[in-house]
Design a protein that fits this description.
Elements (H helix, E strand, L loop, with lengths): L1 H67 L12 H11 L3 H4 L10 H15 L11 H9 L3 E8 L2 E7 L3 E6 L15 H6 L4 E4 L3 H12 L6 H12 L10 E8 L5 E10 L2 E9 L4 H15 L4 E5 L11 E4 H11 L13 E2 H44 L8 H34 L8 H4 L8
Parallel strand pairs: 7-8
Antiparallel strand pairs: 1-2, 3-8, 3-9, 4-5, 4-10, 5-6, 6-7
């Protein structure tokens, strides 16, 4: 009995301890679940807070963009000299303008530019600043390689920001240049799409300007910038502008609607892209493709794209350090061989194909010329060798590479001769096959009759 009751009590104690442990495990489990739920709730609250913050920021940015949206209304500041001087003195007190060179009209701008470049190199900068909103001075900046934008200081007060990039993104269109980027990359899908669109130049400058403002906001296209660009566009050809002019590029759909466009400037054989817009998906790429080939057709040698952006690499563009860019720019700015003209609507794909085929035919003619030059050189070598043999002089021993080159030229020469002979034979056989049998041919007429008359 003692043993029975003892064993029963042990079992009872064991079962109670098991229940206690199970209860503790359940408590710990509930606590873990509760902690996980609290953590999940905190995480959710953080996400909601971030979304609310982003929505608020987006709303503020949108409101700011709406304030920047404007219309094309070009105007130029008409400050008295003392007012402009006072504004410049006030701006020089700010750190931003202290760190950047102040550019302004001077008699010897080339020497002044060297000083500006030295300051930019020393400070490792790109931007200068100016309050001289004069079209002639703006054209002087373009002539010397600046890409100029603008910034707003306060209502009715804007500052000009001429920029000389440390590295300029360009497409070199000069086939004789070491840095030539031809042939340009052509996307098959963009070329196929280009069939639906046509291109013109300078046919609706105001509408293109407004299209850029509508898409990007005023951004840097403030009224003074509109004024200088529009003045240069209207008064193109005047000597005071150093050959600089402003352009609009227009892309039209099949219904005659303006669907994309670009603003730019040109001087000599250089075209500089400023900004653009598009209304339909893919039309921006079509515009760049058509413009790149139109520039080649119009004999431009450099396409200046300003700051590097990823999409520009798809055009085959490269980067030039500041000094190399300025050297190339100075060499091309006074050339008069280029003229960006396209008054009538031209199909974009037909334009691309025309330029590509023209380049191919030119390359073929250059290769034929090289082959002819090689044949002439080979004949000259043979003649010189014969002369040396006649004089008793031993000919110089040619290298194996030279022997292979001459043998290749000889095979080409023989192949051309065989092809020419075959062509003449076929032509002769064809002439004989079409001759009439009545003796009225030219050969029959030359044979005298029996009487000798």
């Amino acid at each position: 009995m003692a043993l029975f009751f003892g064993s029963h009590s042990n079992k009872k104690n064991a079962s109670s301890s098991t229940k206690i442990q199970q209860q503790k495990r359940e408590q710990r489990k509930r606590k873990r679940v509760q902690m996980a739920a609290e953590a999940q709730q905190q995480k959710h609250n953080k996400k909601q807070k971030k979304k609310t913050t982003k929505k608020g920021k987006g709303k503020d940015n949108h409101e700011e963009r709406e304030k920047e949206v404007g219309i094309f209304e070009p105007s130029l500041p008409n400050w008295p000299a003392e007012v402009k001087q006072f504004i410049e003195e006030q701006l020089k007190k700010f750190d931003y303008f202290k760190k950047r060179p102040h550019v302004y009209p001077v008699a010897d701008f080339d020497s002044f530019l060297n000083t500006i470049i030295a300051l930019l190199e020393k400070r490792k900068g790109d931007f200068c600043w100016s309050m001289d909103w004069e079209p002639v001075f703006f054209s002087c900046l373009v002539y010397h390689g600046f890409l100029t934008i603008a910034s707003k200081i306060q209502d009715d007060l804007w500052v000009m920001l001429p920029k000389l990039h440390q590295e300029r993104c360009v497409v070199d269109l000069d086939r004789n240049s070491k840095t030539c980027h031809l042939p340009l990359l052509v996307s098959k899908s963009t070329k196929k799409k280009a069939k639906k669109y046509t291109i013109t130049i300078d046919q609706c400058y105001e509408r293109v300007f407004q299209g850029c403002i509508d898409q990007h906001g005023l951004n840097w296209l403030y009224p003074p910038m509109q004024g200088v660009l529009y003045t240069i566009y209207k008064k193109r050809g005047e000597a005071q502008f150093h050959g600089v002019t402003s352009h609009s590029i227009e892309i039209w759909d099949e219904a005659g609607k303006l669907v994309a466009g670009e603003l730019g400037t040109s001087v000599g054989c250089i075209y500089t892209s400023l900004t653009g817009f598009y209304l339909e998906s893919g039309t921006g790429s079509v515009q760049l493709l058509a413009l790149s080939h139109l520039l080649q057709k119009c004999h431009f040698l450099l396409w200046d794209l300003g700051m590097f952006i990823e999409y520009k690499s798809s055009l085959g563009a490269g980067l030039l350090p500041r000094q190399e860019f300025l050297a190339k720019y100075r060499a091309l700015r006074d050339l008069k061989t280029a003229d960006l003209v396209c008054a009538e609507k031209t199909n974009c794909r037909d334009l691309v194909n025309e330029v590509i085929n023209s380049a191919k035919s030119q390359n073929d003619s250059n290769e034929e010329k090289k082959e002819d030059d090689g044949d002439t050189a080979m004949q000259s070598n043979d003649k010189n060798g014969n002369d040396n043999e006649q004089k008793g002089d031993a000919p110089k021993q040619m290298s194996r590479k030279e022997q292979k080159r001459l043998a290749k030229l000889e095979r080409r020469k023989l192949a051309k001769q065989r092809a020419k002979a075959e062509k003449e034979k076929q032509s002769k056989d064809a002439d004989q096959s079409v001759q009439p049998d009545n003796g009225d041919t030219d050969e029959a007429k030359d044979v005298p009759d029996k009487t000798g008359q």
